[in-house]
Amino acid sequence: MPEDHHRDMVLSYHHVRTALGILGMALPLFLLIGGLLEQHRIEPSISDFYHTLYRDIFVGTLCAIGVFLICYRGYGRRPGDVINDDWLGTIAGTSAFGVALFPNESPTAQIATMTQNIVGIGTSPLFHYASALIFFTCLAIFCLSKFARTAKTVRRRVYQGCGWIILACLIGIALASWLKIHGTGAGQAAVMRYNLVFWFEAVGIWAFGLSWLVKGKADQAFIRMAKRLPIDQDDRVHS
Q1: Is residue 238 part of a domain?
Q2: pTM here?
């Protein structure tokens, strides 16, 4: 393969990964800022922003993440892999579409969406939560299994840290959601008062965004830009 062609392919991988990282970092931030500025509050969860003026940002960003993940090829199956990068990305991307297009519960919603008409308003949240579970699980697998395996020491620790944060946030989301719905007293009040579901979701998505930014070598690109150095032609797809 010509060197220039190989370099273009490497940069293409880096750009896709960086785009995913930027989208992951931006989604909770935009919703947080928008909610505070427009409504002087934030919603109990990121999913609840679907029922606000920020629906387009919520749906659009998740659909963009879904497209990038579905298009991401990654590496083929290696010894010990249960699933290759391509299929894992496709599952994660499809679940991102599920989170975006199947709304959760809303006591104020009066007009059913297309997907709610198809599966039923009462069933739509089940698709939403199942998609969210699959989405976060796939993101954790990318960090802990896919990214960490071929990374050097420092980057491997970043990927592993992000993966464990995602899993911890997933557990936190489940516990906080249960307390929100079934809890009583101080536990339920704390979840509602401090928007714990939102913050667990935000931190998990930020960890996803950071891992993909590092995988896309955005840190190295930033350093080169700061130093005004040309892109190293010896970059490789593996991080």
Answers
A1: no
A2: 0.84
**Contact by Cβ (8 Å): 49, 58:** yes
Does any domain span residue 235? no
Number of domains in the chain: 1
8 A C-beta contact, residue 176 and residue 197: yes
Cα–Cα distance for residue pair 180/100, rounded to 1 Å = 22
pLDDT digits (tens, 9 = 90+) for 61-86: 999 999 999 998 877 777 777 788 89
Closest CA to 65 of 163, 170, 209, 198: 209
For residue 127, the enclosing domain spans: 3-107+117-227
Which H or E run contains 167? helix 153-182
**Residues of the chain by 3-state class (helix, strand, coil), percent to 5:** 75, 0, 25
User: Is 169 part of any domain?
Assistant: yes
Residue 197 to residues 18, 84, 103, 174, 224, Cα–Cα distance (Å):
26, 31, 16, 8, 38
